[in-house]
Amino acid sequence: MGLMDGKKGLVFGIANDHSIAWAITRFLRDEGASMGFTHLPDRDPERPRMERRVRKLVDDFARFVVPCNVQKDEDLDRVFSEAEQAFGTLDFVLHSIAYAPIDDLQGPTVACSREGFKQAMEISVYSLLAIANRARRLMSEGGSILTLTYLGGEKVIPGYNIMGVCKAALESAMGYLANELGPQGIRVNALSAGPLKTLSSSAVGEFDQMLKLYTTMSPLRRNVTPDEVGRVGMLLLSDATSGITGEIVHVDCGYHVMGAPPVELHER
Ligand SMILES: NC(=O)c1ccc[n+]([C@@H]2O[C@H](COP(=O)([O-])OP(=O)(O)OC[C@H]3O[C@@H](n4cnc5c(N)ncnc54)[C@H](O)[C@@H]3O)[C@@H](O)[C@H]2O)c1
Fold first, then answer.
1. Among 174, 200, 208, 229, which residue has the most ligand 1 atoms within 8 Å of its CB, making it the best to mutate?
2. Looking at the domain assignment, is residue 30 inside a domain?
3. Within 6 Å (CB) of ligand 1, which residues are found?
4. How many structural domains compose the chain?
5. Which whole-number Å values give the CA distances from 117 to 109, 149, 229, in the listed order?
6. Mind listing the pLDDT tens digit for each residue in 121-161?
7. How far apart are alpha carbons 103 and 136 in whole angstroms?
């Protein structure tokens, strides 16, 4: 018996086999979940690179794979109508999406452009509201919605810049959604992952420094693995965590509790 037997869900955010959404999907699949997936729409229909990358991973078990740019209401509507046709109702949704234009992400926060700010907030934050609003209609029996965040939303992490501002807003949105959807039995949580090498994180300034910092600063003195994040992601989407909502669950080898470097790093 799997923890996700009989559960039906939607996964937003697989780009390739390094994606956190894929790490979580592997556990969801192994625990028996039925799932539909989205991929970024391909510019050239003759060479559907985005679709191919996702299909290569999920084709064996996906109920459907559809294109979706979360900036487009019609794309989101199509995904949820596909889910309704395939499943009738939904038990879980994984939101593992973030984006900021590279110049705004790598430049100082103080110089973020108006357009870059709007785009980053729309894709990284508003999309959670837009997805939750559509998901709740299909979650008549309750459900679980999970988003991905990073410590840079709670504390200043130099280099994370405008994405930190987005994560602070995302975490706040998560709490407001938990309050509004809780009476319907829908839980909303955020998993705050330690740094993992993915397509998105490669655009974050000082990312290699961040990785190094975790091996010296975190209580476990190492970085988190994709499997460690994937397993907790699956658990937060399952009934095993039925009493948890509005929570930011840190899967970061304890890094977030540190207020100063470990004593062995102090100058003597
Ligand atoms: N990698 C890390 O170190 C790390 C740590 C903590 C949190 N996170 C968060 O995890 C989530 C997933 O990121 P990842 O690291 O797996 O990278 P990733 O690049 O594999 O995933 C990001 C996803 O966002 C999707 N996306 C971007 N713009 C979109 C749009 N307009 N419409 C639909 N989808 C869009 C991409 O297609 C991609 O699938 C993000 O929210 C990220 O901030 C990552």
1. 200
2. yes
3. 13-15, 18-21, 40, 68-71, 96-99, 123, 148-150, 193, 195-196, 198-201
4. 1
5. 10, 17, 28
6. 999 999 999 999 999 999 999 999 999 999 999 999 999 99
7. 36
